[in-house]
Amino acid sequence: MIFDLQKEIVEWFTHNEVTLKGNSSPRPIFEFSETGFPPAIIEKLKKACFEKPTVIQSISWPVALTGHDMISIARTGSGKTLAYTLPGIVHMQNQEQPEKVRGPAVLILAPTRELVQQISSMAMNFHSKVACAYGGSGRDQQARTIREGVDILAAAPGRLLDFLIAGVLNLNRCTYLVLDEADRMLDMGFEPQIRRIVSMIRPDRQTLMFSATWPKEVRTLAKDFLSDPVFVNVGSLKLAANSNIIQLVTVVEENEKEEKLLEFLNRTSSEQHCKTLIFVGMKRTADWLTRLIRKKGYPALSLHGDKSQTERNFVMNAIVNDRLLLVCLGDLSYILDFKNGECSILVATDVAARGLDVNDIKYVINFDCPKNIEDYIHRIGRTARHDKTGTSYTLCTRSDAPIVNELVSVLKEAKQTVPSDLLDLKILISGMSEIN
């Protein structure tokens, strides 16, 4: 019996490409009943129709619940929010509860306001005293909520530092710190704010770091902030695309992109329960393309940094909550009935690339090719979440030369078909480089 269990565990590690390093080697958790979570949490998991732990949850929960610091490298859409949130709730409940609360016991730092909102929304399903802090709007309301007392705080580094300086809260009570999407926070220039915030937290805290990639900058941050951490990695440490994504790439002229996009939408629009995310490079392109798509008869919304917080919340709720809503553009009205399976389309800049948490996006279209391969991986990672399948469609032009070589490598690594015209473009670019 023991031999069979050990064999099952070894096969699980191998099948799921899980690497575990450090002074703790806990057995992965295969069923919610094995977690030791309070009955109320397990009941809520069942009511939310979670059937069993995801891979990252299976290995993260036993590490986090034993109090170890942890570094977790896993792709987006792997279920990491619950991987750190639920142990955080258990950790908080095991701490002495102060009579007067001036700050959270659990602090979760994340790069974007959308992700902060989604983390807090998820946490609220399991605990009541949850708040969020992010820039853009709602400062006074956020401050009031925090002052009323909070156990769990999800925050963007900039707004949190603002609140700390203003005396809205302190971090004296914080004993459980999570850095979510650490690589993205560093990409966005938050390292100084993060370091200042962490310096205000007691050194005997438990710290968990989650990242999709493992570059030198993230390794340095981990070395500075974590104590004897357990290292958990799901998949290859090389930057790689989710193998559940079919990656399609078409080389086009700039003036052909509009036609190719509409052809793709025409092929997929008849599918039931279909959500499509289209990435563009500039804010004005998002608005222009949304108008164009609507004129062709497809329901569409746009999301970018110039949208007000009210508009952003409206769009995010529409995409996430599967509810009936009315969208107006001039005298045009579009009813998007997600429950009846109409194809909903979101046109977005990269502001949504890491903050959007929607499980059933089927297609990701790169109308404008991203500037680097990291953004390509993160963009297409919006589909095929939670072990589902999805498709990405990228329109590549000669102006996208900086990404072509790495794009070909990513396609080959994921065992995808590399189109001949993309290989021709790679050869052309290489030849031009030699001439120069």
Automatic annotation (TrEMBL):
Residues 30-58 form the DEAD-box RNA helicase Q domain. Pfam families: DEAD, Helicase_C. CDD domains: SF2_C_DEAD. A motif (Q motif) lies at residues 30-58. It is an enzyme of class 3 (hydrolase). InterPro entries: DEAD/DEAH_box_helicase_dom (IPR011545), Helicase_ATP-bd (IPR014001), Helicase_C-like (IPR001650), P-loop_NTPase (IPR027417), RNA-helicase_DEAD-box_CS (IPR000629), RNA_helicase_DEAD_Q_motif (IPR014014). Keywords: ATP-binding, Helicase, Hydrolase, Nucleotide-binding. This is RNA helicase. Signal peptide: none annotated. One of its GO terms (molecular function) is ATP binding. GO terms for cellular component: P granule. Residues 244-426 form the Helicase C-terminal domain. Residues 61-232 form the Helicase ATP-binding domain. PROSITE patterns: DEAD_ATP_HELICASE (PS00039), HELICASE_ATP_BIND_1 (PS51192), HELICASE_CTER (PS51194), Q_MOTIF (PS51195). SUPFAM superfamilies: P-loop containing nucleoside triphosphate hydrolases. It comes from the Eukaryota. Its EC number is 3.6.4.13. It comes from Brugia timori. It catalyses: ATP + H2O = ADP + phosphate + H(+). Coiled coil: none annotated. Belongs to the DEAD box helicase family.
